[in-house]
TrEMBL record:
Its cofactor is a divalent metal cation. It comes from Cacopsylla melanoneura. Residues 1-25 form the signal peptide. This is N-acetylserotonin O-methyltransferase-like protein. PANTHER family: BIFUNCTIONAL DTTP/UTP PYROPHOSPHATASE/METHYLTRANSFERASE PROTEIN-RELATED, BIFUNCTIONAL DTTP_UTP PYROPHOSPHATASE_METHYLTRANSFERASE PROTEIN-RELATED.
Length: 254
């Protein structure tokens, strides 16, 4: 008896989905231990300052739930006011490197929220902006516009190493800081069936590069060189270092 081609395709995709779930569950526990260790390190770094910080009005100029989750994990209290800054107004060709590009975007986003607060006669003691891009072969992969583009992005990443750049800006009444962090990520070789199955989960559609390292996309990754939280969208350790060195302690009375 011949198998209907459509049923055969569905069977292959379902098999790929099961494979992703199994690999994700195996990798998940290992990455969770690493993530918890990195969070503990960042929490310890901020411990001498956490009481002062949590008496300040801190604003995160990003709607990313992943960035919010990471900042909450180290004990910070803040308000989320997403920036509406138009990223396309800053051409990447103006910059010598991608690090400068993302740190400028982060700064522009933080400044946009700062200006908004000022117009409403409000102030914040600290405003945090961030932006993340994925690059491969001198191409920038943003968030895919649809499933087909997500498949194209994942096909480019398959079996190759790409770079993830996150820029962070910290604005305060006295001192500012901005920096970028780079992480190298190597993907396993992905079959078209695995790519289709992963895209069908919906996870890639709101993420730069069309994957989420903290989700099922982690099962597609062979190697990470650098801070894995940078790939999630916020380099916690570097943020704590720059906050302490460049901004803290804030003047009393702020």
């Amino acid at each position: 008896m011949e198998i209907c081609p459509i049923k055969a395709i569905v069977a292959v995709i379902l098999s790929a989905l099961v494979h992703i779930q199994i690999v994700h569950s195996r990798i998940g526990s290992q990455s969770e231990h690493l993530h918890q260790a990195l969070i503990r390190k960042s929490s310890v770094m901020l411990e001498p300052y956490i009481n002062q910080l949590n008496n300040l009005k801190i604003v995160l100029a990003s709607s990313s739930p992943r960035r919010s989750q990471l900042l909450k994990s180290i004990g910070l209290k803040f308000e989320v006011i997403p920036s509406d800054f138009d990223e396309s107004s800053v051409p990447v060709s103006k910059f010598k490197n991608y690090g400068d590009f993302v740190s400028e975007l982060a700064y522009k986003k933080a400044m946009e929220v700062s200006d908004l607060l000022r117009e409403e006669n409000h102030e914040a003691d600290l405003i945090i902006g961030a932006d993340t891009i994925v690059t491969i072969n001198d191409m920038v992969l943003g968030k895919p516009k649809d499933e087909e583009e997500a498949k194209e992005f994942l096909s480019k990443l398959s079996g190759n190493t790409h770079s993830v750049f996150t820029g962070v800006a910290i604005l305060s009444k006295g001192r500012n800081s901005r920096f970028s962090n780079q992480t190298e990520v190597t993907f396993s070789k992905l079959t078209p069936e695995v790519i289709s199955a992963y895209v069908k989960t919906g996870e890639p559609l709101d993420k730069a590069g069309a994957y989420g390292i903290q989700g099922k996309g982690g099962s597609l990754i062979e190697k990470v060189s650098g801070d894995p939280f940078n790939v999630v969208g916020f380099p916690l350790s570097a943020f704590c270092t720059h906050l302490i060195q460049d901004v803290l302690p804030l003047p009393t009375g702020n």
